Amino acid sequence: MQITLYWKDLEIIEVRKIKENKYVSTLSIENITKAEEDGFPVALIQNVKLIDNKMPNIILDRIPSAEYLSSVLKDTENVEKSILEYINKTRCKRVTDYITLVAK
């Protein structure tokens, strides 16, 4: 699983699941600098760990809970797949900001 966070059209963070409950985050320094100049609040990513047992909070905060997804989606056996489909369908876009998510 791979989830990428964008600010407008700039890739900011790429998060990959490498093992069960092991996530690796890669930051694009060049794009973060450009995004910051364009208004990106860098404080949102200051606590992102390179390797962690959970996905970064900036991404988790945009994804509905597994329980909610299970209640509204048909494929309840594969919650991870449902999450990826939800991300790609909605981009987890909010009206109030320029952050979007893309999943692979």
Describe the structure.
- The protein is of the alpha+beta class and 104 residues long.
- It has four helices and five strands; from the N terminus they run βββαβαααβ.
- A five-stranded antiparallel β-sheet has the order 4-3-2-1-5.
- The longest helix is centred in the C-terminal third of the chain and has 12 residues, at 79-90.
- It is globular and about 40 Å long.
- It starts with a strand and ends with a strand.
- The relative contact order is 0.21.
- The model has no long low-confidence stretch (mean pLDDT 88).
What characterizes the major β-sheet? 5 strands, antiparallel
Strand content: 25-35%
Low-confidence stretches: none
The percent of residues in helical segments reads 25-40%
| Element order: H for helix, E for strand | EEEHEHHHE
Radius of gyration: 14 Å
N- and C-termini, Cα separation: 6 Å
Tally of helical segments: 4
Q: Structural class, from helix and strand content?
A: alpha+beta
Strand order of the largest sheet: 4-3-2-1-5
Structural shape: globular
Topology, number of strands: 5
The average pLDDT score comes to: 88
